[in-house]
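Late entry, zinc ion complex.
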Amino acid sequence: MSNNRYTYTELTDDISAFSSQYPHIPVFSIGKSLEGRSIYAIKPGHGSRRLFFSGAYHGTEHLTAKVLVTFAHRLASGEYAAHINLDDTSLYIVPMVNPDGVEIAAGGVYWQANARGVDINHNFDALWALSKETEAAHGANAPGPTRYGGEYPESEPETKAIADFTRQNSFDAVMALHSQGEVIYYDFCGLVPDGTEKYLEAFESVSRYRRAMPEGIAAYGGYKDWFIKKYKKPGFTVEIGLGENPLPMSDFDEVFSGVLPILLAAAKQSAI
Ligand SMILES: [Zn+2]
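Prediction complete; structure with ligand written out below:
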């Protein structure tokens, strides 16, 4: 454990503090990780438009979880009332998809995968077989710290929990936070769902983040890839911050203020 990381322990503390402070906002677990940690969800709002924010798919990307928990907390406190109307929008927030990976990485090793060495963001059913074919070229055809896609799509409890949660709720748009690069991925192999452009224009007008197209193995098997392929609705991967993973905790304030306008714009856009 490192004081320079946002860990599962801190998430758990923040989740219980959130529950006691805002008892009217649902907080629940959508499943358990391989090692039995809860995959928490927070659901502010009660509108018919549904937006899903998720983070920490990758072990070293702890700051994405802290961004989402902080966002949920400030949203609940009413700080964003001028930006988000919780009567017409429901937000579903899963700050830490891969708590085991975050804990492993907090020990100081480079670890993006889950506890079994499967990269959750290569384990979704979106050209998964093609992702498998290219694994060897990346030295990732066996369980390990990064990029190994598992034995079959949704083989991992974390992937399954997110996919089930998505199947159970009709999200109008989804945003998966990763780090780093200050770029936004928005297509799946050239497929760009209707409505995507409006989001991108909003994101680029309120932030310094810019749209980008992924290449090679990064283009397959991810959550937003699967969401776009299956639902043909806007889905985004937002790479927060700049630097080298894991981004240090000291970057938090700057990273948060950089990505906040995008989160607010997404919530606003989904309500249009
Ligand atoms: Zn990532």
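The two ends are 43 Å apart (CA to CA). Will revisit in the morning.
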